[in-house]
């Protein structure tokens, strides 16, 4: 349904059979290239949706905002990339993660899924051990009903998701609830931590947010086939909308690294240019469209290893994943220091509190640990020089892993 052939060939994926295992099928993940139709649903409006997906993909691939990361001269991000990002509010960087790195990510994801609670509130994982997040104070594992919209039309997250998305009916054999977000992902996956230290991506962060850029937060989004929940149309950020200094980059951006690629059916959609608008009427947009299919939105169409950079102020969202293809997104956000320093943390991510120099410095140390972790795995790379931590030495070992526990309590959320 509207899938780019090169992508569909590489990323067809769905949960392995859980028959006889006694656990929800959504806790399993196939390798790239496998294909099964378990849990795929149909919808009474499927033909119209298929056309919407195809039209959106066509529009997305016609935009001049995709290609490899390119630096010029003394290390500046190529001006064509910078211009396209600020014009459309997103850019798809192709081929950022190679096959070896993707294999590491897949192995970590498989191990991580075994550590999920067997169900919401469970005290054990699949192997009978204490599950991920045990003993931690910060939020980690987020559950939602299969194919649901857990936040749309609610007051959650400061009411940023004002309209509820269509909720398809899940198949009879689908689990009632699935894990769809993992917060603080860098403490649970060395592969994700190394991705966070990628010199090209950190170079992009410096180009867009300044050399003194700060972290925001990191999560995993899991959109399993036939069960993955939707994320209602919204814009991120709650702090700077009324600021006299507001501009198109005030609330930072997210990198969205794609382990299996993403399609119109399972990926994030963006309304180009809305990051430049101080006021946006999302309920009015949906009412005018007559449904949650916003006519000017385009999907992030990615192959495995691609990374999209998306402005947090752009209107974006995703539909419930009724397709047979999985999406796993390694989400990594960054801010301008000027947007963060002296602000009060919103509490959507991290604890509510003053985002002062000490909190920013402590939270930024994760970048130093990630750079060192990546250096150990990829010694042939030139590591990124993160200037706010100049002169500080970092290591990556079991002690450093322990130091990452609950790091996301300090997320810099504005």
Q: Can you describe this structure?
A:
By secondary structure, this protein is an alpha+beta fold. The protein has a single domain, classed as q2cbj1_9rhob like domain (Jelly Rolls). The chain contains eleven helices and 16 strands. An eight-stranded mixed β-sheet has the order 1-4-12-9-14-7-6-5. Strand 2 and strand 3 form a beta hairpin. Helix 4 packs across helix 6. The N terminus is likely disordered.
In one word, what is the shape?
A: globular
Spans where pLDDT lies below 50 across 5 or more residues: 1-42
CATH-wise, what's the superfamily? q2cbj1_9rhob like domain
Order of helices and strands: HHEEEHEHEHEHHEEEEHEEEEHEEHH
* Helix percent band: 25-40%
Broad structural category: alpha+beta
- Supply the number of structural domains: 1
């Amino acid at each position: 349904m509207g899938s780019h052939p090169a992508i569909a060939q590489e990323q067809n994926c769905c949960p392995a059979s859980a028959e006889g295992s006694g656990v929800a099928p959504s806790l399993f993940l196939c390798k790239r290239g496998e294909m099964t139709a378990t849990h795929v649903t149909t919808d009474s409006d499927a033909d119209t949706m298929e056309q919407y997906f195809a039209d959106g993909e066509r529009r997305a691939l016609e935009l001049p905002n995709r290609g490899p990361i390119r630096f010029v001269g003394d290390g500046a991000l190529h001006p064509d990339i910078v211009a396209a990002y600020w014009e459309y509010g997103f850019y798809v960087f192709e081929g950022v993660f190679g096959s070896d790195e993707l294999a590491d990510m897949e192995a970590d994801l498989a191990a991580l899924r075994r550590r999920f609670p067997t169900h919401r509130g469970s005290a054990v994982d699949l192997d009978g051990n204490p599950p991920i997040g045990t003993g931690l104070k910060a939020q980690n594992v987020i559950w939602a009903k299969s194919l649901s919209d857990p936040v749309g039309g609610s007051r959650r997250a400061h009411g940023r998701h004002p309209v509820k998305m269509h909720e398809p009916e899940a198949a009879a054999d689908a689990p009632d609830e699935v894990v769809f977000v993992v917060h603080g992902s860098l403490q649970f996956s060395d592969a994700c931590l190394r991705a966070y230290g990628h010199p090209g991506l950190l170079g992009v962060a410096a180009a867009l947010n300044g050399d003194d850029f700060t972290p925001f937060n990191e999560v995993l989004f899991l959109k399993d086939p036939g069960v993955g929940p939707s994320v209602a149309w919204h814009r991120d950020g709650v702090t700077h909308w009324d600021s006299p200094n507001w501009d198109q980059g005030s609330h930072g951006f997210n990198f969205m690294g794609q382990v299996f690629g993403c399609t119109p059916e399972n990926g994030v959609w963006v309304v180009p240019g809305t990051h430049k608008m101080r006021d946006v009427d999302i309920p009015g947009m949906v009412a005018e469209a007559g449904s949650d299919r916003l006519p000017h939105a385009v999907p992030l169409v990615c192959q495995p290893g691609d990374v999209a950079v998306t402005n947090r102020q752009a209107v974006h969202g995703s539909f419930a994943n009724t397709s047979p293809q999985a999406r796993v997104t390694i989400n990594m956000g960054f801010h301008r220091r000027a947007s963060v320093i002296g602000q009060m943390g919103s509490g959507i991510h991290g604890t509510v509190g003053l985002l002062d120099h000490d909190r920013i410095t402590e939270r930024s140390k994760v970048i130093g640990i990630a750079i060192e972790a990546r250096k150990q795995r990829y010694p042939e790379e030139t590591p990124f020089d993160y200037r706010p931590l100049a002169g500080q030495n970092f290591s990556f070992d079991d002690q450093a892993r322990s130091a990452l526990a609950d790091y996301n309590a300090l997320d810099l959320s504005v």
